[in-house]
Amino acid sequence: MSLRDDDSALLSIDFLAGFTVFLLAFIIAASMVPGMLASLQSSTVDHDAVAYRTGVILAEDPGWWFDEVTMTGHTHWEGERTALDSIKRMGLAISKDTPGILSMGKVERFFNKIEYNANPKFYSSRLFFSDYPYTFNISLKEVGSDTPLSIGSPVPKDTTDYGSIRRMVMVKEVGPAIKDSSSFHSSDNTIGAKTFAIRLNFSEILSKPLAYRVDPYEDRIEVRLENLNHYNDNANVILEDLSLFRGPSKIPTNRLKDTRYSILKVGDETKNPEDQPSIADNITLILKPGFFTYEIVKPSETVDIKFTFNKTEPTTDWTYLNDTYDYASTPSPLTPAVLEVAIW
Amino acid sequence: MVDDSAQLYTIEGFAAAFIILATAYLISGTMSIYTPGDSHITDMQLEQIGNDVLAVMDTPTTQGGESELVGYLKDWNTDGFNERFSNLLNNRTSGKDTLKYDASVSYRSDTDTVQNAPFFSSQTRTNYEQAVRVTRLVTIPESTDLSSHLPEFEKRDQVVLLEVLIWRS
Q: What is the ipTM of this complex?
């Protein structure tokens, strides 16, 4: 019997061999593709791109705060001191509509070295949104000033070792509203407590253009009452109470007694309002950025910060400050500043 | 017995496959994909800082105020412009940069043509510089008469184009 009676099985061996060669060729060709692109890999290009993106987020984005439980979000992330996971992005601009104008409140919170050193990984994750362990240095300096703010590691000496971007921005800062107490109305000779209120009409304050208004949600609010000693009855006066009111009803918040959110100074000493401190010639109340949230006060409402003064022995008639001050402050002129981002 | 049994019919196939593979390998090894961009990073950085500086100078620092840039242009204050622009352009958080620039103004003349006039140059150009161009439209109020600096300047509320070439020296 001839071995070549028919072609059975021959075809399948040819096919097998041919297909094997094809597969081998395909695998080799496919594995060459990454090699073709290898020459395109350039770490400096990547770092420059990340630096540019980070610069844009810092200079042109107001950041984002989002609470997954209540599903609410806003751009006033700088007020968050405890639940850091709610901070999704750390942009420094005052709003999306004003790129390049930074909020001093956000700048101070961002360049806080204590917060940075406590959690550098948090900064990385909220700036680069990447698992890659970038090292960075971000600095900001007002033009004409000699003291830059900076966080991160020292910048490498060789400029080719890192990617960078330089941005020119403006910083909005709100200075203190200084008031002489003699310009206010005083109560006549009566017995008992006197109240002084700082009134914040949010809808009126927020009606000004973004770059030129004091945003109570965003900016530091500082009121300094001076010359309290011009009252003859200035001895033995104490601050009996300091509370936040919406109309006649008290807002239940302890932020006026929490130094993370507000500072009360009598003379130049920081005091706790709960200790009912005795009053000197001047009082300063500082509400830090992030003191007000939408839960405490809505943008359409008006709130009063009420100081209640009394005598240590409230038995005699006395005359003292008893008025309402409509807070109306304008920010200081915008100051140019240079922002530099270096990444490696 | 001589026949084709057990002969590898595909030996030519193997030979051809290896030739194709070798060719493909050689071709892919010599191929490179051109991507524009690498050399443009530095240009992008210059453009960014240039645009930022013009934007900062054109933002009034107080509500309702006039921007610095409008002030320098309408008073034709080239020295003031140079001092401020150079300072902002070269400002760094530590140290100074060495950027130079050449600014010019394009405007509409009273014969309805667009004309261009030099504003200020911080260094004479040799035309070898790797310069980038940034621009800003600036509103000049009607009361301004710039005809002594800008020939045939039409005296009305007008928007002029400030064009700045920036390079590293």
A: 0.75
